[in-house]
């Protein structure tokens, strides 16, 4: 769980497997991750992730299962 009082600004990031996370704005994003253009409080970013990341399987697993 996260701290509801955390008012720092975060950015939503996604990796090549299309998995999402939040990262503190202003810090270098780790290798393999890219910003997706959404920033806000941690709660706002997590709300966005809940909407867009509906299939939690990594992209490679989804593609293998569809083949």
UniProtKB/TrEMBL annotation:
One of its GO terms (cellular component) is cytosol. SUPFAM superfamilies: MbtH-like. It comes from the Bacteria. One of its GO terms (biological process) is siderophore biosynthetic process. InterPro entries: MbtH-like_dom, MbtH-like_sf, MLP_fam. It holds the Pfam family MbtH. Gene3D superfamilies: Structural Genomics, Unknown Function 30-nov-00 1gh9 Mol_id. Residues 1-51 form the MbtH-like domain. This is MbtH family NRPS accessory protein.
